[in-house]
Amino acid sequence: MVDPREPEKAAAGTGPADIGQDLARTRWWTVAVSAVATLLVASELSMAAFALPLIAADLHVPGSATAWVLLAYQLPMAALALPAGRWVDRSDPRTVFSASLALVAVASVLASIAPQFWILLIARALQGFAAAAYLAVYLPVVTLAVRPEQRGRAMSYHATIMMVGSIAVAPLGGWLADASGWRAVFWAKAPLLLAAAVLGLLSVPTRARSADGAERAGRALAADVLLVGTAVTAALLAIEQAGQHTTWTAAALGIFALALGRWWTRLDTTRPVRTLLHNGSLAWPTLALMLNASVIGLITFLLPFFISDVMHRGSGLLSAALVFFVATSALITPMAGMLADRFRPLPVAAWGGALTVAALLPMLTLTPDTGLAGLGWRMALLGAGMALFNSPNMTAILQTTPQDRTGTVGGVTNLARTLGTTLGPAVAALGWALGSGGTNGLRTGVAALIVLTLAAFTALLAAARTSPPASAS
Protein backbone atom coordinates (compact mmCIF):
# COMPACT_ATOMS: atom_id res chain seq x y z
CA MET A 1 0.00 0.00 0.00
CA VAL A 2 1.18 3.47 -0.82
CA ASP A 3 1.74 5.75 2.16
CA PRO A 4 -1.04 8.41 2.00
CA ARG A 5 1.45 11.02 3.15
CA GLU A 6 3.61 10.37 0.10
CA PRO A 7 2.54 12.65 -2.75
CA GLU A 8 3.74 10.45 -5.59
CA LYS A 9 1.92 7.35 -6.76
CA ALA A 10 3.86 4.14 -6.91
CA ALA A 11 3.84 2.38 -10.25
CA ALA A 12 2.36 -0.97 -9.35
CA GLY A 13 4.00 -4.01 -10.81
CA THR A 14 7.05 -2.23 -12.13
CA GLY A 15 10.51 -2.30 -10.71
CA PRO A 16 13.76 -0.63 -11.62
CA ALA A 17 14.56 -3.11 -14.35
CA ASP A 18 11.20 -2.53 -16.06
CA ILE A 19 11.77 1.15 -16.83
CA GLY A 20 12.47 1.54 -20.54
CA GLN A 21 11.65 -2.13 -21.20
CA ASP A 22 8.97 -1.09 -23.70
CA LEU A 23 11.49 0.85 -25.81
CA ALA A 24 11.95 -0.73 -29.22
CA ARG A 25 15.53 0.55 -29.15
CA THR A 26 17.68 2.84 -27.10
CA ARG A 27 17.55 6.52 -27.99
CA TRP A 28 21.29 7.06 -28.34
CA TRP A 29 20.70 10.55 -29.71
CA THR A 30 19.13 11.48 -26.36
CA VAL A 31 22.11 9.98 -24.55
CA ALA A 32 24.48 12.04 -26.73
CA VAL A 33 22.60 15.28 -26.05
CA SER A 34 22.55 14.55 -22.33
CA ALA A 35 26.26 13.71 -22.36
CA VAL A 36 27.18 17.01 -24.03
CA ALA A 37 24.99 18.91 -21.59
CA THR A 38 26.67 17.10 -18.71
CA LEU A 39 30.06 18.14 -20.08
CA LEU A 40 29.01 21.79 -20.13
CA VAL A 41 27.61 21.72 -16.59
CA ALA A 42 30.41 19.59 -15.10
CA SER A 43 33.14 21.88 -16.41
CA GLU A 44 31.63 25.00 -14.85
CA LEU A 45 33.52 24.80 -11.55
CA SER A 46 36.95 23.88 -12.91
CA MET A 47 36.90 26.41 -15.76
CA ALA A 48 35.89 29.27 -13.48
CA ALA A 49 38.88 28.59 -11.21
CA PHE A 50 41.24 29.90 -13.90
CA ALA A 51 39.46 33.27 -13.96
CA LEU A 52 39.87 34.05 -10.25
CA PRO A 53 43.09 36.15 -10.43
CA LEU A 54 41.65 38.29 -13.23
CA ILE A 55 38.36 38.71 -11.34
CA ALA A 56 40.26 39.93 -8.28
CA ALA A 57 42.13 42.53 -10.32
CA ASP A 58 39.18 43.73 -12.40
CA LEU A 59 36.57 43.95 -9.63
CA HIS A 60 39.08 45.17 -7.01
CA VAL A 61 38.55 42.44 -4.40
CA PRO A 62 41.16 40.51 -2.37
CA GLY A 63 42.38 37.31 -3.94
CA SER A 64 41.11 35.28 -0.98
CA ALA A 65 37.58 36.61 -1.55
CA THR A 66 37.46 35.13 -5.04
CA ALA A 67 37.12 31.66 -3.51
CA TRP A 68 33.46 32.60 -3.12
CA VAL A 69 33.12 32.60 -6.91
CA LEU A 70 33.52 28.83 -6.65
CA LEU A 71 31.61 28.41 -3.39
CA ALA A 72 28.68 30.51 -4.60
CA TYR A 73 28.21 27.89 -7.33
CA GLN A 74 29.09 24.79 -5.33
CA LEU A 75 27.05 25.46 -2.19
CA PRO A 76 23.62 25.86 -3.87
CA MET A 77 24.37 22.93 -6.16
CA ALA A 78 25.02 20.68 -3.17
CA ALA A 79 22.45 22.19 -0.82
CA LEU A 80 19.63 21.81 -3.34
CA ALA A 81 20.66 18.35 -4.61
CA LEU A 82 18.12 16.38 -2.56
CA PRO A 83 15.24 18.88 -2.88
CA ALA A 84 15.88 19.12 -6.62
CA GLY A 85 15.86 15.34 -6.94
CA ARG A 86 12.51 14.98 -5.18
CA TRP A 87 11.09 17.81 -7.26
CA VAL A 88 12.27 16.14 -10.48
CA ASP A 89 10.34 13.00 -9.53
CA ARG A 90 7.15 15.10 -9.62
CA SER A 91 7.99 16.92 -12.85
CA ASP A 92 8.36 16.27 -16.56
CA PRO A 93 12.03 15.38 -17.25
CA ARG A 94 12.02 17.05 -20.67
CA THR A 95 10.87 20.36 -19.20
CA VAL A 96 13.35 20.24 -16.31
CA PHE A 97 16.20 19.20 -18.62
CA SER A 98 15.75 22.07 -21.05
CA ALA A 99 14.71 24.71 -18.51
CA SER A 100 17.66 24.01 -16.22
CA LEU A 101 20.16 24.26 -19.09
CA ALA A 102 18.56 27.48 -20.30
CA LEU A 103 18.78 28.91 -16.77
CA VAL A 104 22.47 27.98 -16.52
CA ALA A 105 23.01 29.80 -19.83
CA VAL A 106 21.16 32.93 -18.69
CA ALA A 107 23.02 32.96 -15.37
CA SER A 108 26.32 32.55 -17.24
CA VAL A 109 25.59 35.65 -19.30
CA LEU A 110 24.61 37.56 -16.15
CA ALA A 111 27.91 36.53 -14.55
CA SER A 112 29.85 37.70 -17.59
CA ILE A 113 28.37 41.21 -17.46
CA ALA A 114 28.41 41.61 -13.67
CA PRO A 115 29.71 45.12 -12.88
CA GLN A 116 30.30 44.35 -9.20
CA PHE A 117 31.53 41.37 -7.22
CA TRP A 118 28.29 40.79 -5.30
CA ILE A 119 26.30 40.66 -8.53
CA LEU A 120 28.74 38.06 -9.86
CA LEU A 121 28.15 35.95 -6.74
CA ILE A 122 24.36 36.13 -7.19
CA ALA A 123 24.72 35.00 -10.80
CA ARG A 124 26.97 32.13 -9.73
CA ALA A 125 24.43 31.06 -7.09
CA LEU A 126 21.75 31.04 -9.79
CA GLN A 127 24.03 28.84 -11.91
CA GLY A 128 24.41 26.45 -8.97
CA PHE A 129 20.66 26.28 -8.46
CA ALA A 130 20.09 25.40 -12.12
CA ALA A 131 22.96 22.89 -12.11
CA ALA A 132 21.39 21.08 -9.15
CA ALA A 133 18.19 20.61 -11.16
CA TYR A 134 20.09 19.37 -14.22
CA LEU A 135 22.26 16.91 -12.29
CA ALA A 136 19.12 15.50 -10.67
CA VAL A 137 17.30 15.00 -13.99
CA TYR A 138 19.97 13.27 -16.06
CA LEU A 139 19.35 9.89 -14.39
CA PRO A 140 15.60 9.97 -15.18
CA VAL A 141 16.48 10.93 -18.75
CA VAL A 142 18.81 7.94 -19.12
CA THR A 143 16.18 5.71 -17.52
CA LEU A 144 13.51 6.77 -20.00
CA ALA A 145 15.76 6.70 -23.08
CA VAL A 146 17.85 3.55 -22.59
CA ARG A 147 16.85 -0.09 -22.53
CA PRO A 148 17.85 -1.80 -19.25
CA GLU A 149 20.37 -4.14 -20.85
CA GLN A 150 22.28 -1.19 -22.37
CA ARG A 151 22.42 1.14 -19.37
CA GLY A 152 25.98 0.18 -18.49
CA ARG A 153 27.17 1.57 -21.80
CA ALA A 154 24.99 4.67 -21.47
CA MET A 155 26.30 5.38 -17.97
CA SER A 156 29.85 4.82 -19.20
CA TYR A 157 29.42 7.70 -21.63
CA HIS A 158 28.17 9.93 -18.85
CA ALA A 159 30.96 8.88 -16.52
CA THR A 160 33.53 9.69 -19.19
CA ILE A 161 31.98 13.08 -19.81
CA MET A 162 31.88 13.90 -16.08
CA MET A 163 35.55 13.04 -15.76
CA VAL A 164 36.60 14.91 -18.90
CA GLY A 165 34.43 17.85 -17.93
CA SER A 166 35.90 18.20 -14.45
CA ILE A 167 39.57 17.71 -15.40
CA ALA A 168 40.45 17.75 -19.08
CA VAL A 169 38.39 20.77 -20.12
CA ALA A 170 39.62 22.87 -17.19
CA PRO A 171 42.63 24.37 -19.06
CA LEU A 172 40.18 25.81 -21.59
CA GLY A 173 39.17 28.25 -18.87
CA GLY A 174 42.74 29.45 -18.58
CA TRP A 175 43.07 29.88 -22.34
CA LEU A 176 39.84 31.87 -22.56
CA ALA A 177 40.79 34.04 -19.58
CA ASP A 178 44.22 34.82 -21.06
CA ALA A 179 42.92 35.46 -24.57
CA SER A 180 39.67 37.32 -23.92
CA GLY A 181 39.45 38.14 -20.22
CA TRP A 182 37.62 36.51 -17.34
CA ARG A 183 34.16 37.42 -18.64
CA ALA A 184 34.65 35.15 -21.65
CA VAL A 185 34.96 32.15 -19.33
CA PHE A 186 31.31 32.63 -18.39
CA TRP A 187 29.63 33.71 -21.63
CA ALA A 188 31.48 31.35 -23.98
CA LYS A 189 29.39 28.30 -23.07
CA ALA A 190 26.01 30.07 -23.11
CA PRO A 191 25.27 29.42 -26.83
CA LEU A 192 26.17 25.74 -26.40
CA LEU A 193 23.95 25.46 -23.32
CA LEU A 194 21.03 27.03 -25.18
CA ALA A 195 21.59 24.68 -28.12
CA ALA A 196 21.58 21.69 -25.74
CA ALA A 197 18.34 22.99 -24.19
CA VAL A 198 16.67 23.14 -27.61
CA LEU A 199 17.95 19.68 -28.55
CA GLY A 200 16.61 18.42 -25.23
CA LEU A 201 13.12 19.60 -26.17
CA LEU A 202 13.43 17.61 -29.40
CA SER A 203 14.98 14.41 -28.05
CA VAL A 204 14.26 13.86 -24.34
CA PRO A 205 11.20 11.68 -23.65
CA THR A 206 8.33 13.25 -21.75
CA ARG A 207 6.54 11.85 -18.72
CA ALA A 208 3.24 13.15 -17.35
CA ARG A 209 3.14 13.94 -13.65
CA SER A 210 0.26 14.53 -11.27
CA ALA A 211 -0.43 18.22 -10.65
CA ASP A 212 -2.22 17.30 -7.44
CA GLY A 213 0.86 15.45 -6.22
CA ALA A 214 3.04 18.45 -6.97
CA GLU A 215 0.80 20.73 -4.91
CA ARG A 216 0.72 18.35 -1.96
CA ALA A 217 4.51 18.11 -2.06
CA GLY A 218 5.03 21.83 -1.40
CA ARG A 219 5.63 21.65 2.33
CA ALA A 220 7.93 18.63 2.01
CA LEU A 221 10.00 20.48 -0.59
CA ALA A 222 10.17 23.58 1.62
CA ALA A 223 11.45 21.46 4.52
CA ASP A 224 14.06 19.91 2.23
CA VAL A 225 15.30 23.29 1.06
CA LEU A 226 15.44 24.75 4.57
CA LEU A 227 16.81 21.84 6.59
CA VAL A 228 18.79 19.81 4.06
CA GLY A 229 20.07 22.87 2.25
CA THR A 230 21.31 24.48 5.45
CA ALA A 231 22.77 21.21 6.76
CA VAL A 232 24.66 20.48 3.54
CA THR A 233 25.96 24.05 3.37
CA ALA A 234 27.19 23.79 6.96
CA ALA A 235 28.80 20.40 6.23
CA LEU A 236 30.64 21.72 3.17
CA LEU A 237 31.87 24.76 5.08
CA ALA A 238 32.98 22.47 7.92
CA ILE A 239 35.06 20.43 5.47
CA GLU A 240 36.55 23.61 4.02
CA GLN A 241 37.41 24.93 7.48
CA ALA A 242 38.97 21.59 8.48
CA GLY A 243 41.23 21.84 5.45
CA GLN A 244 42.29 25.29 6.66
CA HIS A 245 42.95 23.95 10.19
CA THR A 246 40.32 26.10 11.93
CA THR A 247 39.35 23.19 14.16
CA TRP A 248 36.78 24.80 16.42
CA THR A 249 34.90 26.45 13.57
CA ALA A 250 34.88 23.19 11.63
CA ALA A 251 33.64 21.27 14.68
CA ALA A 252 30.85 23.76 15.37
CA LEU A 253 29.69 23.71 11.75
CA GLY A 254 29.86 19.92 11.69
CA ILE A 255 27.75 19.57 14.84
CA PHE A 256 25.25 22.08 13.48
CA ALA A 257 25.02 20.12 10.21
CA LEU A 258 24.48 16.83 12.05
CA ALA A 259 21.77 18.35 14.24
CA LEU A 260 19.87 19.70 11.25
CA GLY A 261 20.30 16.41 9.41
CA ARG A 262 18.95 14.49 12.39
CA TRP A 263 15.96 16.83 12.58
CA TRP A 264 15.27 16.34 8.88
CA THR A 265 15.36 12.53 9.12
CA ARG A 266 12.66 12.62 11.80
CA LEU A 267 10.14 14.30 9.49
CA ASP A 268 7.43 12.05 8.04
CA THR A 269 7.93 13.61 4.62
CA THR A 270 11.48 12.23 4.41
CA ARG A 271 10.31 8.63 4.41
CA PRO A 272 10.94 8.10 0.65
CA VAL A 273 14.59 9.16 0.96
CA ARG A 274 15.11 7.19 4.16
CA THR A 275 13.61 4.11 2.54
CA LEU A 276 16.01 4.43 -0.37
CA LEU A 277 19.05 4.83 1.86
CA HIS A 278 18.03 1.87 4.02
CA ASN A 279 18.47 -0.29 0.92
CA GLY A 280 22.06 -1.46 1.16
CA SER A 281 22.20 -2.23 -2.57
CA LEU A 282 21.81 1.50 -3.20
CA ALA A 283 23.32 3.05 -0.07
CA TRP A 284 26.69 1.25 -0.21
CA PRO A 285 27.49 2.16 -3.85
CA THR A 286 26.45 5.76 -3.11
CA LEU A 287 28.86 5.85 -0.17
CA ALA A 288 31.56 4.37 -2.42
CA LEU A 289 30.85 7.10 -4.98
CA MET A 290 31.45 9.79 -2.36
CA LEU A 291 34.63 8.23 -0.98
CA ASN A 292 36.16 7.51 -4.38
CA ALA A 293 35.43 11.06 -5.55
CA SER A 294 37.92 12.24 -2.92
CA VAL A 295 40.74 11.18 -5.28
CA ILE A 296 40.32 14.61 -6.89
CA GLY A 297 42.33 15.93 -3.93
CA LEU A 298 45.43 14.34 -5.45
CA ILE A 299 44.96 16.20 -8.73
CA THR A 300 43.77 19.57 -7.43
CA PHE A 301 46.03 19.92 -4.38
CA LEU A 302 48.79 17.39 -3.71
CA LEU A 303 50.32 17.11 -7.17
CA PRO A 304 50.24 20.85 -7.99
CA PHE A 305 52.04 21.70 -4.74
CA PHE A 306 54.49 18.80 -5.05
CA ILE A 307 55.35 19.70 -8.64
CA SER A 308 55.80 23.38 -7.75
CA ASP A 309 57.49 23.19 -4.33
CA VAL A 310 59.48 19.95 -4.56
CA MET A 311 60.06 19.25 -8.25
CA HIS A 312 60.36 22.98 -9.09
CA ARG A 313 58.47 22.48 -12.33
CA GLY A 314 55.62 24.42 -13.92
CA SER A 315 51.96 23.48 -14.19
CA GLY A 316 52.60 22.19 -17.71
CA LEU A 317 53.97 18.95 -16.26
CA LEU A 318 50.68 18.20 -14.51
CA SER A 319 48.70 19.16 -17.61
CA ALA A 320 50.76 16.74 -19.69
CA ALA A 321 50.38 13.99 -17.09
CA LEU A 322 46.61 14.50 -17.09
CA VAL A 323 46.60 13.55 -20.77
CA PHE A 324 47.64 10.04 -19.69
CA PHE A 325 44.84 10.01 -17.11
CA VAL A 326 42.14 11.15 -19.52
CA ALA A 327 43.31 8.99 -22.44
CA THR A 328 43.32 5.84 -20.34
CA SER A 329 39.93 6.70 -18.86
CA ALA A 330 38.48 7.27 -22.32
CA LEU A 331 39.73 3.84 -23.43
CA ILE A 332 38.63 1.91 -20.35
CA THR A 333 35.24 3.51 -19.67
CA PRO A 334 33.37 2.04 -22.69
CA MET A 335 34.78 -1.39 -21.88
CA ALA A 336 33.69 -0.96 -18.26
CA GLY A 337 30.18 -0.16 -19.46
CA MET A 338 30.06 -3.26 -21.66
CA LEU A 339 31.34 -5.42 -18.81
CA ALA A 340 28.66 -3.99 -16.53
CA ASP A 341 26.00 -4.86 -19.13
CA ARG A 342 27.35 -8.37 -19.68
CA PHE A 343 28.06 -9.20 -16.06
CA ARG A 344 26.78 -7.74 -12.80
CA PRO A 345 27.99 -4.14 -12.40
CA LEU A 346 28.98 -4.39 -8.73
CA PRO A 347 31.85 -6.87 -9.24
CA VAL A 348 33.19 -4.71 -12.08
CA ALA A 349 32.96 -1.61 -9.89
CA ALA A 350 34.71 -3.47 -7.06
CA TRP A 351 37.61 -4.35 -9.37
CA GLY A 352 37.77 -0.68 -10.30
CA GLY A 353 37.80 0.30 -6.65
CA ALA A 354 40.62 -2.14 -5.94
CA LEU A 355 42.61 -0.84 -8.92
CA THR A 356 42.12 2.75 -7.70
CA VAL A 357 43.60 1.85 -4.32
CA ALA A 358 46.49 0.06 -6.03
CA ALA A 359 47.06 3.04 -8.35
CA LEU A 360 47.52 5.40 -5.41
CA LEU A 361 50.32 3.30 -3.92
CA PRO A 362 52.95 4.27 -6.56
CA MET A 363 52.21 7.92 -5.79
CA LEU A 364 53.97 7.31 -2.47
CA THR A 365 57.22 6.73 -4.39
CA LEU A 366 57.28 10.04 -6.29
CA THR A 367 60.60 11.88 -5.95
CA PRO A 368 61.88 15.32 -7.01
CA ASP A 369 63.55 13.64 -10.00
CA THR A 370 60.41 11.96 -11.34
CA GLY A 371 59.79 13.03 -14.93
CA LEU A 372 56.79 13.04 -17.22
CA ALA A 373 57.10 9.33 -18.00
CA GLY A 374 57.14 8.38 -14.32
CA LEU A 375 54.21 10.62 -13.47
CA GLY A 376 52.38 9.69 -16.67
CA TRP A 377 52.19 5.93 -16.08
CA ARG A 378 51.03 6.53 -12.52
CA MET A 379 48.25 8.80 -13.77
CA ALA A 380 47.31 6.28 -16.47
CA LEU A 381 46.93 3.55 -13.85
CA LEU A 382 44.77 5.84 -11.72
CA GLY A 383 42.64 6.74 -14.74
CA ALA A 384 42.06 3.05 -15.47
CA GLY A 385 40.93 2.39 -11.90
CA MET A 386 38.57 5.36 -11.82
CA ALA A 387 37.10 4.46 -15.21
CA LEU A 388 36.53 0.84 -14.20
CA PHE A 389 34.76 2.05 -11.05
CA ASN A 390 32.59 4.97 -12.15
CA SER A 391 30.13 3.77 -14.76
CA PRO A 392 29.55 0.26 -13.31
CA ASN A 393 28.97 1.83 -9.89
CA MET A 394 26.39 4.25 -11.33
CA THR A 395 24.79 1.38 -13.26
CA ALA A 396 24.49 -0.59 -10.02
CA ILE A 397 22.80 2.39 -8.37
CA LEU A 398 20.40 2.81 -11.29
CA GLN A 399 19.51 -0.90 -11.29
CA THR A 400 18.24 -0.70 -7.71
CA THR A 401 16.40 2.61 -8.15
CA PRO A 402 12.57 2.42 -8.02
CA GLN A 403 10.79 3.72 -11.09
CA ASP A 404 9.36 6.81 -9.39
CA ARG A 405 12.55 7.75 -7.51
CA THR A 406 15.12 8.28 -10.27
CA GLY A 407 15.16 12.03 -9.67
CA THR A 408 15.66 11.59 -5.94
CA VAL A 409 18.51 9.17 -6.53
CA GLY A 410 20.00 11.60 -9.05
CA GLY A 411 19.99 14.23 -6.32
CA VAL A 412 21.50 11.83 -3.79
CA THR A 413 24.35 10.87 -6.13
CA ASN A 414 24.96 14.52 -7.02
CA LEU A 415 25.22 15.33 -3.31
CA ALA A 416 27.52 12.36 -2.68
CA ARG A 417 29.82 13.35 -5.53
CA THR A 418 29.93 16.98 -4.37
CA LEU A 419 30.73 15.99 -0.80
CA GLY A 420 33.50 13.71 -2.06
CA THR A 421 35.09 16.32 -4.29
CA THR A 422 35.02 18.74 -1.35
CA LEU A 423 36.31 16.19 1.15
CA GLY A 424 39.24 15.10 -1.04
CA PRO A 425 41.05 18.45 -1.31
CA ALA A 426 40.39 19.19 2.37
CA VAL A 427 41.88 15.85 3.45
CA ALA A 428 44.78 16.30 1.04
CA ALA A 429 45.49 19.78 2.42
CA LEU A 430 45.35 18.48 5.98
CA GLY A 431 47.74 15.63 5.13
CA TRP A 432 50.12 18.03 3.39
CA ALA A 433 50.17 20.27 6.47
CA LEU A 434 50.61 17.39 8.93
CA GLY A 435 53.56 16.15 6.89
CA SER A 436 55.04 19.66 6.85
CA GLY A 437 54.80 19.81 3.07
CA GLY A 438 57.35 18.47 0.62
CA THR A 439 57.73 14.75 0.05
CA ASN A 440 56.45 13.88 3.52
CA GLY A 441 53.39 16.05 2.98
CA LEU A 442 52.66 14.30 -0.31
CA ARG A 443 52.98 10.87 1.26
CA THR A 444 50.79 11.79 4.22
CA GLY A 445 48.11 13.20 1.94
CA VAL A 446 48.23 10.21 -0.40
CA ALA A 447 48.03 7.83 2.57
CA ALA A 448 44.87 9.61 3.72
CA LEU A 449 43.35 9.26 0.25
CA ILE A 450 44.28 5.58 0.21
CA VAL A 451 42.30 5.13 3.43
CA LEU A 452 39.26 6.79 1.84
CA THR A 453 39.44 4.74 -1.38
CA LEU A 454 39.98 1.55 0.62
CA ALA A 455 36.80 2.41 2.51
CA ALA A 456 35.06 2.84 -0.86
CA PHE A 457 36.21 -0.63 -1.92
CA THR A 458 34.92 -2.04 1.38
CA ALA A 459 31.55 -0.37 0.76
CA LEU A 460 31.33 -2.10 -2.63
CA LEU A 461 32.02 -5.46 -1.01
CA ALA A 462 29.21 -4.74 1.44
CA ALA A 463 26.94 -3.82 -1.47
CA ALA A 464 27.73 -7.11 -3.20
CA ARG A 465 26.65 -9.00 -0.07
CA THR A 466 23.34 -7.12 0.19
CA SER A 467 22.39 -7.07 -3.50
CA PRO A 468 19.95 -9.67 -4.86
CA PRO A 469 21.29 -12.40 -7.13
CA ALA A 470 21.38 -11.66 -10.84
CA SER A 471 18.32 -12.81 -12.72
CA ALA A 472 18.73 -15.29 -15.46
CA SER A 473 18.91 -13.73 -18.85
UniProtKB/TrEMBL annotation:
- May I ask which residue range the UniProt record assigns to the signal sequence? none
Its transmembrane ranges are 28-55, 67-84, 96-119, 125-145, 157-176, 188-208, 220-239, 245-265, 286-307, 319-339, 346-365, 371-389, 415-434, 446-464
Where in the cell? Cell membrane
Question: Which keywords appear in this protein's UniProt record, sorted alphabetically?
Answer: Antibiotic resistance, Cell membrane, Membrane, Transmembrane, Transmembrane helix, Transport
Instruction: State the CDD domains in the record.
Output: MFS_MMR_MDR_like
Q: Does the keyword Heme apply?
A: no
Annotated Gene Ontology cellular components are:
plasma membrane
Topology in the lipid bilayer: Multi-pass membrane protein
Q: Provide the protein name.
A: MFS transporter
